[in-house]
Amino acid sequence: MTPDLLQLSQSVADLCRQAGAFIREQVSSFDQSKIVTKGLHDLVSYVDKESEKMLVEGLQKLFPEAGFVTEEGTVANSDESTEYRWIIDPLDGTTNFIHGLPCFAVSVALARGVVPVLGVVYEVSRDECFRGAEGLGAFLNDKPIRVSTAASTEDTLIATGLPFYKFDHMDAYMAILKEYAQHSRGIRRWGSAATDLAYVACGRFDSYFEFNINAYDVAAGILLVREAGGRVTQWLKDGDPVFSRETLATNGLVHDQMQTVMKKHWQEGFQM
Questions:
Q1: Strands of 157-160's sheet in order across
Q2: Do the beta carbons of residue 248 and residue 233 sit within 8 Å?
Q3: What CDD domains does the database record attribute to this sequence (predicted)?
Q4: From CA 13, how far away is CA 40, in angstroms rounded?
């Protein structure tokens, strides 16, 4: 079955807003004692899990033929042979949320194989809903969005994420950061990959890069950037940026320039 992506994206956006409303309600009453550590610097709360349950239940009704790839495991993850899969991060930016910082988002993508064909990122604090669908464009609160027109890295504002585990390649990563810091308008570490990508899609950021990143963090945002006219690849080459654990997203105009810097400092054999 081929879904109606336009109608489905609107329904998914409504569902993400509902999950976002629940998250927003929890900000003032959040119970710090219920934080669970999944791994080094990797936190989860009951808010993440309850939000994911809400999303899974709603998405199953919208498109029951699709499987799931979820962060919190509230439903069994489907294997790669499943034609369509929902890829969900119920609260991207959990650490920000826990510490009372304003940037966190609900991220939902629908992928056909490894290619996202629908994406919604709802940034809760600013009540901004980004949505898009394959071949149908990208929108912010239902207004069309496009990537920026910066043609040189010297004129770009760059988003990234700092590794919070697996620090094997920090020297190479810091060398890349150093070069970008010297040849851009600045670097921002927002703490929510989904939001970073949505901001590239609407032109607030000109590019975003990160490694050791998960599919549920980036799948929806990758669709948004592509539908807004940008380009998304792996760091050093074209290929699957959703499940490869490395993502480079730009307005397209500075993509080759950024890859040149990365190829100078990063080795293709590095394990993510």
A1: 186-188, 157-160, 207-211, 246-250, 231-233
A2: yes
A3: IMPase (cd01639)
A4: 32
**What is the per-residue pLDDT for 193?**
97
Q: What is the pTM of this model?
A: 0.92
Domain's final residue, options 144, 176, 205: 144
Residue 270 has pLDDT above 80, yes or no: no
Same domain, 139 and 158: no
168 has binding-site annotation: no
Host domain of residue 15: 5-144
Q: Is 80 annotated as a binding residue?
A: no
Identify the bridge partners of residue 128 per DSSP, sorted by sequence position.
123
Domain final residue pick, 144, 168, 191: 144
CB atoms within 10 A of CB 126: 12
pLDDT tens digits along 111-148:
999 999 999 999 999 999 999 999 999 999 999 999 99
Same domain, residue pair 219 and 180: yes
Element (H, E) at 120: strand 115-123
SS3 8: helix
**According to the annotation, is 217 in a ligand binding site?**
yes
> Do 134 and 177 lie in a common domain?
no
* Contacts of residue 259, Cβ cutoff 8 Å, sequence gap at least 6: 233, 235, 236, 248
216, 213, 209: which is closest to 248 by C-alpha?
Answer: 209
The answer to whether the CB of 231 falls within 8 A of the CB of 249 is yes
Residue bearing the bigger pLDDT, 120 or 45: 120
Q: Mean pLDDT check: name the lowest of 67-81, 150-164, 225-239.
A: 67-81
272 in a structural domain: no
What 3-state class would DSSP assign to 258?
A: helix
Question: What average pLDDT does range 150-177 have in this prediction?
Answer: 87
